[in-house]
Amino acid sequence: MKLLIVKLGGSVITDKRKPFAIKHTVVKRLAKELKGVPGPLVIVHGGGSFGHPLALKYRIADGYREKDQLMGVSLTHLAMEKLNKYLIEALQKEGIPAIAFQPSACVLSSDGRIKSMELGPLRRILALGLVPVLYGDVVFDVKKGFSILSGDQLVSYLARKLGATRVVFGVDVDGVYTSCPKRNDRAELLRVITPSDVKLVASMEKDETGDVTGGMQAKVRELLELAKFGVEAEIVNAARANVLKEALRGKRGLGTIVTGGK
Ligand code: ADP
Predict the structure, then answer these.
(1) Is 10's C-beta closer than 6 angstroms to any atom of ligand 1?
(2) Ligand 1 pocket residue status of 176, Cβ below 6 Å
(3) pLDDT tens digits for 50-78?
(4) What is the pLDDT of residues 102-136, one digit of tens each?
(5) Is the CB of residue 149 below 6 angstroms from any atom belonging to ligand 1?
(6) How many structural domains does the chain have?
(7) Is ligand 1 within 6 A of the CB of residue 11?
(8) Domain holding 18: CATH number?
């Protein structure tokens, strides 16, 4: 099975500067680009301005500390479901048989990392030719009570467990730079990242987008872990028309490749 996994970044499908702001035109275009992808496809999306502000407000990533956080768990999850529903409807309009797949119902984590995930239904969904759409979510955690599972960690885990042949991350910049390209004019685009670049990745500063999941640095770390298992990923600019489409059709080198060896 030639499985493709695509991550639609929260920065692409929402406006991170405004709460609950979907980029409607972009979502419509991406749904068109996802149409006609050959073979099985898993879609995962990030939280953007839906999940992150609430998760931050209620300190969900810290785990259970006080009862008041429980409403935050409820609100954060619902916000993600709303974004998921919007995306699924956009995919349906393009004739893609998309189906929501709720991470919090099938993942158990331990200290913020996936400990186990019930993959049986997901495998059946893929075998039937449906397109599951998952997302970063509040998940239940054996050590912390609850925690945040980033869409990035989820992609990395699924790619390994389901044996993906290619992983494509759509973000709103041209790839991974030496530092944040929105804040540093001299940031240089990196074409390839391998495990030997671990120091470079550590030196990338954390961005200040209000993400509870660690931004670009955490994303690259997840992908370097995945690269160790022989699955190559590429981070591309999905805010530019047709870039994601071409990447999903097998074109390499459009952004930053994260791979196990040069
Ligand atoms: P997602 O789209 O998955 O929400 P993030 O917002 O976590 O992705 O990551 C993309 C953002 O990371 C970009 O919009 C950019 O502003 C920021 N960023 C910070 N550091 C870097 C870097 N070194 N290279 C590229 N982007 C970076």
Answers:
(1) yes
(2) yes
(3) 999 999 999 999 999 999 999 999 999 99
(4) 999 999 999 999 999 999 999 999 999 999 999 99
(5) no
(6) 1
(7) yes
(8) 3.40.1160.10
Domain, as residue range, for 13: 4-258
Cα(134)–Cα(31) distance, rounded to whole angstroms? 15
Give strand pairing partners of 141.
109, 145
For ligand 1, whether the C-beta of 46 sits within 6 Å is yes
Q: Is 62 in the pocket of ligand 1 (CB under 6 A)?
A: no
The CA distance from 193 to 11, in Å, is 21
Distance 217 CA to ligand 1 centre (A): 8
CA distance readout (Å), 239 to 97, 228, 242: 23, 28, 9
pLDDT at 205 over 80: no
Who contacts 185 (Cβ-Cβ below 8 Å, separation ≥6)? Answer: none
Residue 48: is it exposed, middle or buried by C-beta count within 10 angstroms (0-12/13-18/19+)? buried
Top mutation candidate among 216, 243, 256 for ligand 1, by most atoms within 8 Å of CB: 216
User: Could you tell me how far CA 230 lies from the centroid of its own chain?
Assistant: 19
Using the atom order of ligand 1, give the atom closest to the CA of residue 152. 3
Rounded Cα distance between 3 and 149, Å, is 22
Strand order from edge to edge, sheet including 145-149: 113-117, 107-110, 137-141, 145-149
- Cα separation, 176 vs 19, in Å, equals 25
